TrEMBL record:
The keyword Hydrolase applies. The keyword Isomerase does not apply. Coiled coil: none annotated. GO terms for biological process: recombinational repair. InterPro entries: DNA_helicase_UvrD/REP, P-loop_NTPase, UvrD-like_ATP-bd. It comes from the Bacteria. Residues 203-547 form the UvrD-like helicase ATP-binding domain. ATP binds at residues 224-231. GO terms for cellular component: cytosol. One of its GO terms (molecular function) is DNA binding. This is AAA family ATPase. Residues 10-22 have a biased composition (Pro residues).
């Protein structure tokens, strides 16, 4: 049973010490004011820390100071982000320690306020509990069928920084079993979008919460249609993991990988708003940027370069550098000469190759193994050499020279340069792996002379990254979130996988939105390349962005682009609007300008999505009409609400109103019809409140 309560006007919060009276809203405001004061006191405590006597060492002092700065920042009270958004009244006292994590902590209460961060009063008792604490979880999961010991769930509505409404759910009330829909939740979902992506911490849904709180040790893969909250869930999961495993992840690090820089700019404020300031963001391209990328590949070439078989080609090519000695090794120590025959050294080399350790690690191990063979001879001759002698022998000039010859250092970029430029070398290491046609696709028309002069493509950089890892292990992070994963090639999955080889990952994607020529056909295959074949695949089906009518229209493409996938179930109540406008011949641009003008009469942001070849013409037309447009990822503001989005950059973004230009041209701008239709599906699913499709030519037949 939901009981909404509103006040017509925001009132001034009660000071913390004022008698709150009998009005529940006033009492909640008093708690908010008191919590704010407590947070201020927590910040002042940290600010007043005097470090002068704590450490004499300036390095330690600098580290401590940086940590304190961080802590002060994380204690900031952002006036527009409510300190708490919910309240739970349990049926009995439950325990929460200071951080709210220990089930049997010292603090016990029946009532908890749930917010973005933990706030305690001067006595150390919690005033607001972090949403990630176990005691907060029922806020997201409790239902009338399974109340989880909760009697009452209260959600707060805010205007600016003030509580202006609340809504109660009595979870003890017996009813018909149907769960009520929260009006505050609906309002939150339907709120117009301006500015960067925001957190959803107050309204995480049960199916999302389960993914957010899944443990650190497992990798989770989330398949979900447009607007089902995949990105939001991934970001909240990092925040949750940082809370639950703070020390471990502080050591090992966390990373969010997105498709391009504008997308990363769009999402970059979510984690700081949740108090997490240390999560890095990257694109796959930036992770593997070992060489400047100035070239590009035709699709057939990029497909072969991105194929997992290339990993084996590289491995073989690298190991082909390992030779066998033809003469015995002679080490001179003082007046004695020690001889190790060539076949014995060959055996040592074979043993190292069989162990399949990194090329560089094996190269470092070989001198020690040779020295060991020399030491055995010394002992047999009655000497008693110790470790120092072994180390000295390992560094002996003759040993070093031999190792350099039989296990030479290899530069990963040069290895790839040779594979792509030397047909014989490529054939020798791919004979049974690739076809002649595939080899022809790989080879540069004209070999480059060196690493610096080569025009490397994005796929080449991934090959170099693989080669680097074969030489020296890539350090692994504790957790990686991979968004828009469906677009990665197998070799790119491997590049991401080695960055979480000893950690875990959250893989987010939608098979229907794959727009690369090598897009993921099925998740198990992708997870195999990532090195996480045991990951759970979860599905999100409720859509929080796209209005029903619009998603139904876009979903007409599904049979053609992803036959197995079901249409997203929109949870938006406002119907939204879908308009199809046929422009007169030659009048596409004026039609777009008019549609943008109309969209801008509404509150919120407008995105004009155009086929890439049309971007400049559209920009000029908008400028001429006095409508300056932002670039994707640039923050929309109240006075700058229109963004011009090339269709190729629309992925992951959203706007209140979308004007989409010439669907057929969006499709045609891609190398294959499948990729083109999926690109169109992405464009058609960016709108929160309304979509206007303006076309001059025929619509693609798949839109029926
Ligand atoms: N539980 C929720 N409460 C309120 N809003 C939500 C919730 N879940 C998602 N949203 C909102 O829905 C919109 C879409 O979310 P998000 O971008 O994470 O979806 P997505 O699945 O990554 O979409 P796409 O596949 O199109 O990139 C965002 O504005 C997000 O804030």
């Amino acid at each position: 049973m939901l009981t909404p309560h509103d006040t017509p006007e925001p009132a001034t919060p009660h000071p913390a010490d004022a008698p709150p009276g009998g009005d529940p809203l006033a009492r909640e405001r008093a708690h908010l004011a008191a919590s704010r004061a407590a947070l201020r006191a927590m910040r002042e405590d940290v600010e007043s820390l005097d470090l002068t006597d704590v450490t004499a060492n300036w390095v330690n002092a600098a580290v401590l100071n940086a940590q304190i700065e961080e802590r002060i920042k994380s204690l900031a009270d952002l006036s527009h982000t409510p300190l708490f958004f919910g309240r739970l009244d349990y049926v009995r006292e439950v325990a929460a320690d200071e951080e709210g994590t220990a089930p049997d902590g010292p603090y016990r209460a029946e009532r908890f306020y749930i917010g973005r961060r933990h706030v305690h009063d001067p006595a150390g008792d919690p005033m607001v509990i972090d949403w990630r604490a176990p005691v907060s979880q029922p806020f997201y999961q409790a239902s009338r069928t399974n109340p989880l010991d909760v009697a009452l769930r209260r959600r707060f509505g805010y205007t600016g920084g003030d509580i202006t409404a609340y809504e109660d759910e009595d979870l003890t009330a017996s009813g018909d079993g149907a769960e009520a829909t929260s009006r505050l939740l609906q309002q939150e979902i339907e709120r117009p979008r301006v500015g960067p992506m925001r957190d959803i911490v107050a309204t995480i849904q049960p199916e999302q919460d389960e993914i957010v709180r899944s443990g650190l040790s497992g990798t989770v893969c989330v398949q979900g249609g447009p607007g089902t909250g995949k990105t939001a869930v991934g970001l909240h999961r990092v925040a949750y993991l940082l809370y639950a495993h703070r020390e471990r992840l502080a050591r090992t690090g966390t990373l969010v990988i997105g498709p391009n820089d504008s997308f990363l700019r769009y999402i970059e404020q979510v984690l700081p708003a949740l108090g997490e300031l240390t999560v890095h963001q990257a694109t796959v391209d930036s992770l593997v940027a070992h060489v400047p990328v100035t070239g590009s590949d035709p699709a057939p070439t990029a497909i072969v370069k991105g194929d997992a078989r290339m990993a084996e080609v590289l491995r073989r090519a690298l190991r082909s550098h390992v030779g066998r000695p033809t003469e015995s090794l002679v080490v001179v120590r003082g007046s004695r000469r020690w001889r190790v025959p060539a076949d014995e050294i060959t055996t040592l080399i074979e043993e190292l190759l069989a162990r399949d350790i990194r090329y560089g690690a094996a190269r470092e191990a070989l001198p020690q193994r040779i020295a060991h063979a020399v030491l055995i001879r010394m002992e047999q001759a009655g000497e008693a050499p110790d470790d120092r002698v072994q180390n000295a022998v390992a560094r002996d000039r003759a040993v070093k020279a031999l190792v350099k010859e039989v296990w030479p250092p290899v530069d990963p970029a040069k290895l790839v340069l040779r594979l792509l430029g030397d047909a014989d070398f490529l054939r020798a290491h791919s004979e049974d792996l690739l076809t002649d046609e595939e080899r022809a696709a790989l080879l540069w028309p004209k070999p480059y002379r060196g690493v610096k002069s080569a025009r490397w493509s994005a796929a080449d950089a991934v090959l170099i990254d693989e080669a680097r890892d074969l030489v020296e292990r890539t350090p692994s992070l504790g957790h990686v979130v991979l968004d828009e994963a469906q677009d990665l090639s197998p070799m790119q999955y491997r590049a991401v996988g080695r960055r979480c080889s000893t950690g875990s990952a959250t893989v987010l994607g939608d098979l229907a939105q794959g727009t690369t020529a090598w897009a993921t056909p099925a998740w198990p295959e992708a997870l195999h390349h990532l090195g996480k074949p045991d990951a759970h695949v979860e599905e999100l089906t409720a859509g929080f962005r796209v209005p029903r009518e619009v998603i139904a229209y876009a979903s007409r493409l599904l049979p053609a682009i992803a036959p197995g996938l079901a249409e997203v179930r929109s949870v938006r109540e406002s119907p939204g609007s879908l308009r199809l406008v046929r422009a007169a011949e030659g009048a596409l641009l004026p039609g777009l300008v008019e549609a943008c003008h109309a969209a801008l009469t509404h509150e919120g942001s407008t995105g004009l999505i155009v086929p890439d070849p049309l971007v400049e013409a559209a920009r000029a037309a908008l400028a001429e009409a006095g409508l300056p447009a932002l670039a994707p990822g640039e923050e929309t503001r109240a006075d700058a609400r229109l963004t011009l989005v090339p269709a190729s950059l629309a992925k992951g973004l959203e706007y209140d109103y979308v004007v989409l230009a010439e669907p057929a041209a969006v499709v045609e701008a891609e190398p294959t019809r499948g990729a083109g239709l999926r690109r169109l599906y992405v464009g058609l699913t960016r709108a929160v409140s309304g979509l206007t499709v303006v076309h001059e030519g025929e619509l693609p037949e798949e839109l029926g």
